[in-house]
Structures are given as C-alpha cells and as structure tokens.
Amino acid sequence: MTKVIALANQKGGVGKTTTTVNLGIGLVRHGKKVLLVDADAQGNLTDSLGWHEPDNLHKTLATVMGKIITDEPLQKREGILHHAEGIDLLPANIELSAMEVSLVNTMSRETIMRNYLEEVKKDYDYVLIDCMPSLGMVTVNALTAADSVLIPVQAHYLPAKGMSQLLQTISRVKRNTNPDLRIEGVLLTMVDGRTNLSKDISFILRRDFGDKLKVFKTEIPMAVKVAETSAEGKSIYEYDKSGRAAAAYEALTKEVMRNGKQREKHQAGLSR
Ligand SMILES: Nc1ncnc2c1ncn2[C@@H]1O[C@H](COP(=O)(O)OP(=O)(O)OP(=O)(O)O)[C@@H](O)[C@H]1O
Fold it and tell me: Which parts of the sequence belong to the AAA domain (predicted)?
C-alpha cells in the first residue's frame, strides 16, 4: 500500500524542502518507488532538484489539480518529471497561488489533491508532499490526501504557538475530511550539537502536547553542506555522502520505514 506523507509546518524555513528531498531519495536508495509533490507556489522543491526556473514549466501540480476540478482526463504521468537520482517529481510554480484562490469556490475543494493522487499513487511506495508555509486550502488538500504528517521543527526556535495552530488544523482535517490522518512525528532540524536546546525542545513538545506527539529519535544536524545541496540540484547522499547530515537523513529514512512496518503489523493484528 502506498504511504502518503505530508511535510508541513506553517513556519517557513524549518527544513521541509530539504527533508522532502533527502527522505525521498533516502527511500529510493532502499529500493522504494517515490513521488515528491511540490505543493508550494515558490517552487523551492522543484528548484532544489535542479529545475531552477520553475515558472518556465508548463505542467505542474496546478495543471493536474485544474484538470481534476474540470473533470478532464489526465495524460499518463502528466507533469511528472524524473530526477537523475531515481525519484519522480510533480513540480510547482507561481500558478499554484491562483489555485489557492480558485479552490475557495470549488465543490469538494478539500479533496482535489486526494482525487489526483488516487489516480497516480498506485505506481509508488511513497508519496511525499512538501507543503507551503501556510495553512491555506492547498495545505488542507495535502493533509486531506495524506496518511500522515511529518512536522519539521527548527531546533533553536520554540514553536509552541505555531505548533498549536498546526495541530488545530490537523484536528479540523481529521474531523471533516480525513479521519485516519496520523502524525508521523516531529523532526528536529538544524540541530546545533553545541547546545542542549534540542533536548529542551523535545521535552517542551512532549510536556505541552502530550506523549501522542511523537518526536523522531533522529535529529538533523546544522551543516553548511546541507544548505549547499539545493544549488547543486542533488541530495546530501550525492553531495556529501560521508558527512553527518547524510548519516542523519539515512537514519530518518530507516525510522520512517520502521514506523510503517510496525503500523502494518499492528493493523494486521487488529484485523485478525
Ligand atoms: N540541516 C541544515 N543545516 C544547514 N542549513 C539547512 C539545513 N536544513 C535546511 N537548511 C537551509 O535552511 C533553509 C531553509 O530550509 P528549507 O528550504 O528546507 O526549509 P522550508 O521549511 O522548506 O522553507 P520554506 O518554508 O521556505 O519552504 C535553506 O536555505 C536550506 O538550505
């Protein structure tokens, strides 16, 4: 069964795009078939995989969502690009901002992305959706299409208020359009090893939001090489394969795969 994971946090610059790329390519390196969906009109994911001028792309997430809205048939792999490291990408550009506006007056406006993914996800083991830094209609679509949400949090920034808003949106989506939506985990990013702040933040998250809010064991270290990868259009495994950040993203990849297996076992146990 395909697993759809939305990477969301309405605060910008927390490592969503970097994590989408390196978790996605990490999964490919373990033999998984993976589609990345850029759900941000800034097109940062598209750019960081080497399509440096997203606004010149003719077919994007906005194109295929538009076709779902008007009930036009999709072409095979319409808009999907293939990256040299073995991963597929549905890109985004500025046209997604217009989609954000037009969704407001669309019937079943929360389920357009889910309906699109129903058509393409059977070709993949994982679909990762890189959300934009807002909790608008496109992000609600991503949360409605997802099985789980992975929440990257910058370790040196206390996210309490933003986290409450995000958790409220997740609860609203669960109540209205996606009752099975789970939280995959909170991922601490840009961790500076010289401080204990990430431990404090893990503690505060658990204290304020309860044990249900799982925090990944893996933490992503702050590393200049990570910041350099996006200009290169490569993953951290290609750019700095023996560095600490590559090891951390590999550990995260294994943790995500392990979580998936545990859940499958649990569900199999329940249905017996
Ligand atoms: N572990 C890291 N160490 C150092 N720099 C990092 C790390 N992770 C991400 N960065 C850099 O921090 C910036 C923000 O990261 P990223 O684009 O992944 O965040 P984002 O949450 O997707 O941002 P946006 O909200 O704008 O989409 C980028 O310049 C990125 O290269």
Answer: 2-183
Minimal-distance CA residue to ligand 1 atom 25: 12
Q: 0.90 cut: is pTM over it?
A: yes
Residue 266: predicted pLDDT: 79
User: What confidence tens digit (pLDDT) does each residue in 17-65 have?
Assistant: 999 999 999 999 999 999 999 999 999 999 999 999 999 999 999 999 9
* 116-129 per-position pLDDT tens digit: 999 999 999 999 99
Q: Ligand 1: does its nearest atom lie under 6 Å from the Cβ of 229?
A: no
Our mutation pick for probing the ligand 1 site, out of 18, 192, 239, counting the most ligand atoms within 8 A of Cβ, is 18
Q: For residue 159, what pLDDT is reported?
A: 64
How far, in Å, CA of 210 to CA of 64, rounded? 38
C-alpha 217/C-alpha 228 separation (Å) is: 25
Q: What's the full length of the chain, in residues?
A: 272
The residue contributing the CA closest to ligand 1 atom 6 is 227
Residue 212: its pLDDT value, please?
67
Regarding the beta carbon of 46 and ligand 1, being less than 6 Å apart is answered no
Query: For the chain, which domains are there?
Result: 3-148+226-271 (3.40.50.300)
Instruction: Of 210, 22, 35, give the one whose Cα is nearest residue 119.
Output: 35
Task: Copy the structure tokens of residue 4.
Answer: 């759809």
Q: Which atom of ligand 1 is nearest to the CA of 228?
A: 31
61-82 in b/e form (b: 16+ CB < 10 A) is: bbbbbbbbbeeeeeeeeebbbe
